[in-house]
Model the fold of this input.
Amino acid sequence: MQWWWLGLVALVAYLLGSVNGSLLVSQTFLKIDIRRYGSGNAGTTNALRIMGKKWAVLVTLLDLGKGAAAVGFGYLLLQGAGSGDVGRLLAGVFCILGHIFPVFYRFKGGKGVMTTAAVVACVDWRVCLAALALFALVVLVTRWVSLGSLLAAAAVPAGMYLSHRGEGREALVLTALSAVITLLIAVMHRDNIKRLLSGTERRFSFKGKAMMDTVKTRTKSLTRKTGAALRQTSKRLRVKGSARRLKGRKVSRRKLRKAKRKSEARSQRAERRRRKGKTQRKTAKRRQSPHVQQAG
Done:
């Protein structure tokens, strides 16, 4: 096997990994940099917290897809040399490196958990299932995603060795590459480990709303309240303005009260016209709807 084949696998896998799903989605569709919000991590968990479920699903598919593509490329390129499994895991390691240190995003990406899941699933689905089961159990019991990720990553080298222990040297290479992946995950979760030890790690909520959804709801509510307050203020100013104009002419109190009543009546008529027009528009829209036409 020629060494430049390994270099080609590593380069292509790294470039694929550098296409960070969370950053791509947040910058393309929402015009934000997700690294400035939440935990500051460009990963699936932060995407779910900040952007919501719909965008988090897209991020997950992108990260899983690039991991699978990198592994498939490594397998196809090194299969002829009899090192297909090694090629898959080698490509996976560099894809995870690309996800963590993406060249397209100034070398600041995610923590590589979702990409690791795709890589391990493509190399050995049995090890992936065992790691996912451990991850799900830990998250359901503790609601700490970071703890589940760390324990699942730690189980991968042991599972890889047990699954390939009869393959001699290749089993050792697979175990060593898996240990590199585990080390990368642990290094990227070093702040989470500190918070776990101090008891300040944030727990994952299955019912909470995404930050972007909350911001939109609050903005709409604030806009409605501001509009109502501005209309009320405008009405008061019109009444006061009429009164001030008459005060400057030194008129009697009776005329002043009469002017106020006229101004209030004008405001009420304008409000009635506004409501009537709104009702008419709703009625016209209802008549134009297909359901009403079918009923007719």
